[in-house]
Amino acid sequence: MKPFLTFCAICCFIGIFRLPIEYYTFLRILVSIGALLVLYNTLSFRQYYFSIIFLVILILFNPVFPIYLYRKSIWIPIDTITGVLFLLINFIERKEQKKDEEAAEETPEHSMPIHQRTVSRDRIINPRKQKEKEQ
């Protein structure tokens, strides 16, 4: 997913230049797919602020019911901000994955299922058996 989000960002930055209408149709489809992927991931990780942002991007770039802002001067900042947001979400997810990997390496005890772990304070001691051992 990381290369795809980077590709979406690069295409948004290329969209700043004056290009044929076919490229902008391709850009709408590409950014919509990227926004849907990010929206799904942010909702599954409960990051609602990014979900709202990428929902707006999805609505703005949707190819089914396109929103036409007839001036290029309006689309230039939108394309730039969208490209920066794709790069931002790309790097934020990488940092979170590194933190998760470090936490997993530090605590290998949690990799086992709960029922297989034994902790000394969780053992049940039968008082009758203890008395028999003492005698």
What this model shows, in words?
- By secondary structure, the chain is mainly α.
- 70% of the residues lie in helices and 0% in strands.
- It has helices at residues 2-14, 21-44, 48-61, 72-106, 127-134.
Keywords:
135 residues, mainly alpha
Question: In DSSP terms, counting alpha (H) and pi (I) runs of 4 or more, how many helices?
Answer: 5
- How far the N terminus sits from the C terminus, by CA atoms, comes to 67 Å
Low-confidence stretches: none
Radius of gyration: 26 Å
What is the H/E order? HHHHH
Estimated share of beta-strand residues? under 5%
Helix content: 55-70%
The coarse silhouette is rod-shaped
What's this, in brief?
The protein has helices spanning 2-14, 21-44, 48-61, 72-106, 127-134.
List the helices and strands and how they pair.
Layout lengths: L1 H13 L6 H24 L3 H14 L10 H35 L20 H8 L1
